[in-house]
Amino acid sequence: MTTEHKIFSKDLIPNEKAAAFLQVEGLVKSYAPADTSVPPVFEAVNFDIQKGEFVCIIGHSGCGKSTILNILAGLDEATQGYVIMNGKEVVGPSLDRGVVFQSHALMPWMTALKNVEFGVRSRWPEKSPEEISEHAMKYLDMVGLGKAANKKPHELSGGMKQRVGIARAFAIQPQMLLLDEPFGALDALTRGTIQDELLQIVKATGQTVFMITHDVDEAILLADKVMLMSHGPRARIAEIVENTMPRERTRSTVHHDPQYYAIRNHLVDFLVNRAAPAPSTEPDSNKLNAELHQQPTVVRPGLKALSNTKISTETTPPLNLIQRSAP
Ligand SMILES: Nc1ncnc2c1ncn2[C@@H]1O[C@H](COP(=O)(O)OP(=O)(O)OP(=O)(O)O)[C@@H](O)[C@H]1O
């Protein structure tokens, strides 16, 4: 069952620019909207995601990242504002959005294969059992679990379970993948391996991804854009950091790029020094109304490092870097 409505009224889309694949407009979330003494978790949250983009969101614990992801998934409702995906307002869960949580949430009585098949059957009920099985196996193979297809979750390691969750989400071929700290519970080695796998799969499928992470290195490796959230309550998307490094990044090479440390320092500096907004006692409703639909500032700290390198070494960066990074 789909619970999405087609947007027919142009008035519902406040900005006139070409519509992005995903538009988040004026999002506010309050868990006690009737109680004015309780401030909203976040407010004035606006961002766009283009088709095929990989976006990470970083912010301190409790600022509202999971709440935003749940609203994008249609599992929670915004108090104000809306989310439009591919021209339709998101008003409930849909197989067009695949979600992977930190706790893999597999059905414990089913094998890895059956877990993946379950989603495939819901997506394409007209497929024969053989077709469903073949389709599910393809995605288990993709995450390197072909040989573990008949194992139940308790026979799998944490990393393997998370791979099943990723295979299950990809297998329904969602228009958008929503990942809530999918690797948070994994050891560093497994995490790195699955990050590389995810990069490969996303590259092969052109998947649009929104991912929560607390790990700046993970964000730099995976994301085209990193959204930085300020502290809650009244959290905002304070900045969007564009990753101007070429997309062909790998864990073993990414830190050789002259842009890497500039981007990393920028992210860490935000989290350590700038995530807390200036203290203010009374919220200014006029200011909030003015800012409700304001897009966050986009910054490209990597480009500065690139131009410094150019001056110091008198070498020209590869053309693809310059083209991709042009503001
Ligand atoms: N159902 C709920 N009822 C009331 N408050 C809630 C509810 N769910 C979340 N909150 C509050 O909303 C705020 C944001 O929670 P959320 O889980 O979205 O933050 P987060 O940024 O994802 O945190 P973390 O990084 O720790 O996962 C927190 O202060 C949390 O206590």
TrEMBL record:
Q: PROSITE patterns given for it?
A: ABC_TRANSPORTER_1, ABC_TRANSPORTER_2
Q: How does it sit in the membrane?
A: Peripheral membrane protein
Q: Which UniProt keywords apply?
A: ATP-binding, Cell inner membrane, Cell membrane, Membrane, Nucleotide-binding, Transport
**Residue ranges, annotated region (Disordered):** 276-295
Q: Which superkingdom is the protein from?
A: Bacteria
Question: Which Gene3D superfamilies does the record cross-reference, listed alphabetically?
Answer: P-loop containing nucleotide triphosphate hydrolases (3.40.50.300)
Localization (cell): Cell membrane
The UniProt regions of compositional bias labelled Polar residues, in chain numbering, are 282-295
Gene Ontology molecular function terms on file: ATP binding
Q: Where is the ABC transporter domain?
A: 22-256
* Cross-referenced InterPro entries: AAA+_ATPase, ABC_transporter-like_ATP-bd, ABC_transporter-like_CS, ABC_transporter_ATP-bind, NO3_transporter_ATP-bd-like, P-loop_NTPase
Q: State the family it belongs to.
A: Belongs to the ABC transporter superfamily.
What PANTHER family does this protein's entry cite?
Answer: NITRATE ABC TRANSPORTER ATP-BINDING PROTEIN, TAURINE IMPORT ATP-BINDING PROTEIN-RELATED
> This protein is called what?
ABC transporter ATP-binding protein
Query: To which species is this protein native?
Result: Limnobacter profundi
